[in-house]
Structure formats: structure tokens, C-alpha cells
Amino acid sequence: MAASKIPVWIKQCLDQYGNCACGRAITKKIGKENLLQILENEGYPCELEILSDQKDKSAYPKDGTYILTLKNRQSLMVDEDEDEE
């Protein structure tokens, strides 16, 4: 099996916390859609959120925070919120 393009620390972070600040360099190098596809193929279906200054309209803002969040983690969090009500 070929080595993954996704660094091990990203998968460890997703396993432990359900999210990961992956950074601009990795996201830009692999590409947003490709990054999400590779993660999904490896059992980590994620959404990518890029938080940045509204002045930077580029696809990969330099000041951005690049956050991967597991999709199933989001549904678990919603279920927990409903249980508390």
C-alpha cells in the first residue's frame, strides 16, 4: 500500500479531538478537494473550514486558519446536545 499524503499527526488529531488545524501549506500543497477525498478514502470523512480576514479573498488566504472537522463527530455532538434537553 502506498504511503498516505496526509501526515500522521493530522489523523492522530482527528482521532483524539475530532478536528484538526491542518494549516495552509498542507491544504494548498494537496488541494482542498483532494485533501478531503483522501481523508474520506482513509476513513476520515471531513469538512474543511477556512477562517480568515475578509480582506483576503484568495482560495488559500495566508492569514487563514484551516480546520478539518470529522463529519460523524458533528452528528455525535448534535446527538449529545439533544440528550441534554
Walk me through what this model shows.
The protein has one domain. It is built from four helices and three strands. The protein has a three-stranded antiparallel beta sheet. With 85 residues, the protein is of the alpha+beta class. The chain has helices spanning 8-17, 24-30, 32-41, 71-84, and strands spanning 19-21, 46-51, 65-70.
Q: What secondary-structure arrangement, pairings included, does this model have?
A:
Layout: H1 8-17, E1 19-21, H2 24-30, H3 32-41, E2 46-51, E3 65-70, H4 71-84
Antiparallel strand pairs: 1-3, 2-3
Give the gist of this structure.
With 85 residues, the protein is α+β, with helices and mostly antiparallel strands.
Mean pLDDT: 84
How can the largest sheet be summarized?
Answer: 3 strands, antiparallel
Report the β-strand fraction as a percent range: 15-25%
Helix share of residues? 40-55%
Determine the N-to-C terminus distance: 46 Å
Overall form: globular
Strand order of the largest sheet: 1-3-2
Q: Describe the oligomeric state of these chains in a short phrase.
A: single chain
Please give the domain count.
1
Which structural class is indicated by helix and strand composition? alpha+beta
* Low-confidence parts: none
Number of E-type strands: 3
Which sequence of SSEs, written as H and E, runs from N to C? HEHHEEH
Radius of gyration: 14 Å
Number of helices: 4
